[in-house]
Design a protein that fits this description.
The protein is 44% helix and 16% strand. The protein contains 16 helices and 17 strands. Helix 7 (222-234) packs across helix 8 and helix 12 (364-376) runs parallel beside helix 14 (407-424). The structure holds one RNA strand.
RNA sequence: GGUCUCUUGGCCGAGUGGCUAGGCAGCGGUCUGCAAAACCGUGUACAGCGGUUCGACUCCGCUAGAGACCUCCA
């Protein structure tokens, strides 16, 4: 590949050619979930977006280390750095240990990521497993004069930091605006400025998750974990940091501030942010209560869902939009994605049926080049998919006899799907046979009966069998000398 | 209120200063006993108003509408 992957870097607001710091190695850090609730459609977007990045870098030959964390402590219910820890709150409500909450929802997250065919990251560190490192980072920041202690809690001193650095660089903010616009919330009494953020919080008496430190018995601030775990596993400076756009401010901004305060330099070379999934034009999120969990999606058990949608339908749906665009949820869009995905997969299966010609009327090398161009242009999966539909057209036209294609062409088509649809985009053909031999045999028996009836021109019988099987969810296609069938869901 | 983004044909959703996105749905045709699938054909889409330009959906300005962040959120 002469041409290179170009990615949109949030911090420079430009598309930039990706140059790994230490090729052939590439390091990616992505903010994972706070495990206090069931994973929802919103969680699927960054997971799938950065899964594709992970897969593509690997495909290009990089040795990728992909770190995606689990936040299991320190993420507070509402800010001003007050309020209850999200996980503790859930534990209190359900009368279980906080770590039981963590374990349960971590397992749930993994379960649904597996269903979506999201690869496991190379390392999945937990915030609670890195308390010592977080305390070390606080000490460094404090020594450099960018933190202050108050009543056993430690806060980052944004004003001090801003004398020499630009706090707000990533999100495009200036401190004066923050002075003017930060809302006055209760409980910021300890902080010098409302926009200062907690590095360490002293635990209140009822707080369960607490660790000893020289400041107090307490727990770390939310932003600290990512600064610590990214650099611990990827190095003081590393390639790519990803996450949802909603984390841009304050989370990622604070991460930069912490790293620069401690080490005097930024750690991240390329920042990538996926956009939000919306429902009726509004962001799908916890606070609005308008989110749909992945389980509800896969089972159709949410009131806004017309039906269940399979994991691959969801994956395909997400990949049909560019990751930096908002993507609006609707039943119409989902069922369109479902049908489109089915067409794509059917065509792949039908490659076997293409009659082999001696010569080829097509140039498939161009198509392959175009697929690379799409991915190299900031992971433009919608364009990539449109090229795969061109391959679909070629396959179906060849079977219909409108195009000619030789053995090499057929192999190239298979490779195109193998590389781009399956390997890079992580799609998989979902089961269409019954998986049950006896059931399959019975269906074949019925369809052979129908074939006999058709030969007798007993169309009344043949149609009756077809209608009844269709009603049972078996899709039948007649072919020249027989039939094909598959189970619908 | 501050900062920023978006507005594409029935729906979803790419993209570009002049050249077909794609999917789903619709319409016409071919094939089929019929249907399904498939194939072929089919849509004067780029919020509105000005400006720059030989030429703008694409650049600039204004107007209208929607959204995001500024508080936890992927």
């Amino acid at each position: 590949m002469e041409q290179k992957l170009v990615i949109y870097n949030t911090i420079t607001r430009k598309k930039e050619t990706f140059e790994a710091l230490h090729p052939p190695f590439a390091g990616i850090y992505v903010c994972g979930p706070t495990v206090y609730g069931d994973p929802h459609l919103g969680h699927a977007r960054p997971a799938i977006t950065f899964d594709v990045l992970f897969r593509y870098l690997d495909f290009l030959g990089y040795k990728v280390r992909y770190v995606r964390n689990i936040t299991d402590v320190g993420h507070l219910e509402n800010d001003a750095d007050e309020g209850e820890d999200k996980i503790e709150k859930k534990a209190r409500l359900e009368k279980i240990e906080p770590m039981e909450v963590v374990q349960y929802y971590t397992d749930r997250y993994h379960l649904f990521m597996d269903k979506l065919n999201v690869l496991k990251p190379s390392i999945e560190p937990r915030a609670s497993g890195h308390i010592i490192e977080q305390l070390q980072l606080i000490d460094k920041i404090h020594e450099k004069g960018f933190a202050y202690e108050k009543n056993g809690s430690v806060y980052f001193d944004v004003e001090a930091y801003s004398r020499k650095n630009h706090y707000g660089k990533l999100s495009g903010r200036v401190l004066d605006d923050l002075y003017a616009n930060t809302r006055d919330l209760d409980g910021q009494g300890e902080k010098k400025n409302s926009f200062d953020f907690a590095l360490w919080k002293k635990a209140s008496p009822e707080h369960i998750m607490r660790w000893p430190s020289r400041w107090s018995e307490g727990f770390p601030g939310w932003h600290l974990e990512c600064s610590v775990m990214s650099t611990k596993y990827l190095g003081e400076v590393f390639d790519i940091h990803g996450g949802g756009m909603d984390l841009l401010f304050p989370h990622h901004e604070c991460e930069i501030a912490q790293n620069v305060a401690a080490e005097g330099k930024e750690s991240v070379r390329y920042w990538m942010h996926n956009n939000m999934i919306t429902i009726n034009g509004q962001k799908m999120g916890k606070s609005l209560g308008n989110f749909i969990t992945l389980e509800e999606l896969f089972t159709g058990s949410h009131k806004v869902l017309a039906k269940a949608y399979s994991p691959m339908t969801i994956r395909f749906f997400i990949l049909q939009a560019h990751y930096r665009s908002t993507l609006d949820f609707s039943n119409e869009a989902l069922s369109a994605a479902e049908k489109g995905f089915e067409r794509l997969m059917d065509a792949y299966k039908n490659i076997e049926k293409i009659p082999v010609s001696d010569n080829s009327s097509l140039n498939l090398t161009d198509l392959r080049t175009k697929c690379f161009e799409a991915l190299n242009d900031d992971l433009n999966t919608p364009i990539l998919i449109s090229h795969l539909f061109e391959a679909v057209r070629i396959i179906n036209s060849s079977i219909a006899g409108n195009e000619k294609i030789n053995k090499e062409g057929i192999d190239e088509l298979k490779k195109l799907f193998g590389d781009f649809a399956f390997n890079v985009m992580g799609l998989v053909a979902e089961g269409s046979s019954s998986g049950n031999q006896i059931l399959s045999d019975v269906i074949e028996l019925m369809l052979n009966e129908r074939l006999e009836a058709k030969k007798r021109k007993d169309f009344e019988s043949s149609d009756r069998i077809r209608n009844k099987l269709t009603a049972l969810g078996i899709e039948i296609k007649d072919t020249k000398d027989g039939f094909e069938w598959k189970l619908k869901n």
